[in-house]
Amino acid sequence: MPYATEENITELAAERWATAEPPRLAELMGALVRHLHAFAREVHLTEDEWAAAMHWLTRTGQISDDKREEFILASDVLGLSMLVVQMNNRFGPDATPATVLGPFYIDGSPTAPFGWDMSDGAEGVPLFVHGTVRDTGGAPVGGAVLDVWQADSDGVYEAQLGEVDEARLRAKYASRPDGTYCLRSVVPKGYTIPMDGPVGELIEHTRISHFRPAHIHFLIDEPGYEKLVTHIFEAQTSYLDSDVVFGTKEELIVPFHHHESGAAPDGTRFDTPFATAEFDFVLQPKE
Ligand code: BEZ
Ligand code: FE
Predict the structure, then answer these.
(1) C-beta of residue 30 within 8 angstroms of C-beta of residue 17
(2) Closest C-alpha residue for ligand 1 atom 7
(3) What does the pLDDT average to over 143-164?
């Protein structure tokens, strides 16, 4: 093998990494080497810049733990997470589109009956989200589990709080045999991504908005259907067109209707203000 020069080093490194097993790893590493070298050549990376980048990566690892995933956040704000979601969830035009999972999902939420209040005492305007789960052919999907999680009316997730006794603003609701579902929570608020780490530091050098529009997360993983990880976004919220993680989609924007009093979708009566949002989830059958 010839000694490395500025001209041949990309080919030499790519050849070396082509020995990786399995073949897919070789493909990934070969492409990574070629694209990294092309980047360095394009911007003529200086040694100081390269050292600063290495230091940034070190700090990104150091601030991460089982509750904080700074590398995922970096991928999110670079648009890479959403690109991977889009390439791997190419549903038909009638199916509900997917969006980012985000770092605040907690596995093992409690199962909840129709209309159950998942707010666990969190303050805010009561919100009912209701609708049906169906497939792209229009047939209702009964017994589908909707795993739901959201931020509170201050924009804070359970995962960002210390010890919490009960599940807070997360639960699993099953659709009824006719596909209908109903959950009760509080109107969520848009929030800023964590800005006190290396990702925030980098964003401070830009004019990028560091906010996400108000939304509620859903995960529906029903046998026979493509897994759906998505959100609904409040139509009246700020930041819809500047979502810092590129997660907003037209089809997922839903008006939240505010009522002074009246009958709620779960059949209860309110003499105080509450809100409702109606959304149908349309699942893509597996091939
Ligand atoms: C979220 O929606 O929970 C989220 C997604 C990406 C980065 C930060 C938060
Ligand atoms: Fe979120």
Answers:
(1) yes
(2) 102
(3) 92
